[in-house]
Amino acid sequence: MSVLQSFRLDGQVAIVTGASRGLGAAMAIALAEAGADVALVARGDLGETRASIERLGRRAIAINADLEDRSAPGAILAAAQTADILVNNAGIIRRASFVDYSDEDWDSVIEVNLRSVFGLSRAFARALVERRCGGKIINIASMLSFQGGIRVAAYTAAKSGLLGLTRAMANELAPLGINVNAIAPGYMATDNTQALRDDPTRSREILARIPAGRWGMPDDLKGTVVFLASPAAAYIHGTTLAVDGGWLSR
């Protein structure tokens, strides 16, 4: 296989959660550009992402699911059928001071950002084992997998846990031919960071620490997700790759 061919995903099916917009939509389209068909999972409208993938000549399946529902993994895998790649991107954030953080917000964030990743990944890995084939699991971590953050206790706990879960999954699944890795996006221009970008002081502070001098864009993750999903990353296990404009190097 040539180097260029090793980055192709022809004949494969990828599941991408949180695919209606932002990072999830960009990564889903990138996988389709590399040749994969894509099962799109979200609570919201998937029409735009689906149309973008179909314009590429790839098949797109829209699956409306709430990842707080613990029956969701079975329904997602049944709709996607024989998937080879899973991108756990869906996530929510709730901001409040630590002393005012509610149990309800804590439970919702942990459920979507961490527990649902465990549940869907477990079901996906079981399906791969039953089919006796390998596959790729890519978790979407965060800068707050490495740092504490402010006013985001549950999000930080979930994303820190996700980094550890990625390593634990890799240790057990690598011998089965399943690669588990993660991407840690830096400060991206998405809905989750709208409040930060709208705050002149916080936005200025954040940009001052990013060596690249700009907020990341969803398209900045496209090459990384294709790489980790492709045969080119066959010997990479348990790694969390920061795509952060240099934030962590400061």
Would you write up a description of this structure?
With 250 residues, the protein is of the alpha/beta class. The chain has a single domain, classed as 3-Layer(aba) Sandwich (Rossmann fold), CATH 3.40.50.720. The chain has helices at 22-33, 47-55, 72-80, 103-131, 153-173, 194-198, 200-209, 222-229; strands at residues 13-17, 37-42, 60-64, 85-88, 135-140, 178-185, 240-243. The protein has a 7-stranded parallel β-sheet with strand order 3-2-1-4-5-6-7, sandwiched between helices. Strand 1 (13-17), helix 1 (22-33) and strand 2 form a beta-alpha-beta unit.
A few lines on this structure:
This protein is α/β, with parallel strands linked by helices and 250 residues long. It is 41% helix and 15% strand.
List keywords for this structure.
7 strands, seven-stranded parallel beta sheet, 250 residues, globular, 15% strand, 41% helix, Rossmann fold, 8 helices, alpha/beta
Write the layout of secondary structure elements.
Blueprint: E1 13-17, H1 22-33, E2 37-42, H2 47-55, E3 60-64, H3 72-80, E4 85-88, H4 103-131, E5 135-140, H5 153-173, E6 178-185, H6 194-198, H7 200-209, H8 222-229, E7 240-243
Parallel strand pairs: 1-2, 1-4, 2-3, 4-5, 5-6, 6-7
Helix pairs in contact: 1-8, 3-4, 4-5
CATH architecture: 3-Layer(aba) Sandwich
Number of strand segments: 7
Mean pLDDT: 96
* Secondary-structure class: alpha/beta
The dominant shape is globular
Name given to the CATH homologous superfamily: NAD(P)-binding Rossmann-like Domain
What is the gyration radius calculated from CA atoms? 17 Å
User: How far apart are the first and last residues' alpha carbons, in Å?
Assistant: 38 Å
Tally of domains: 1
- Strand fraction equals 15-25%
Task: Output the number of helix runs.
Answer: 8
For the largest beta-sheet, the strand count, sense and barrel status come to: 7 strands, parallel
Give the SSE string.
EHEHEHEHEHEHHHE
List low-pLDDT spans. Answer: none
- CATH class, named Alpha Beta
- Helix content range of the residues, please? 40-55%
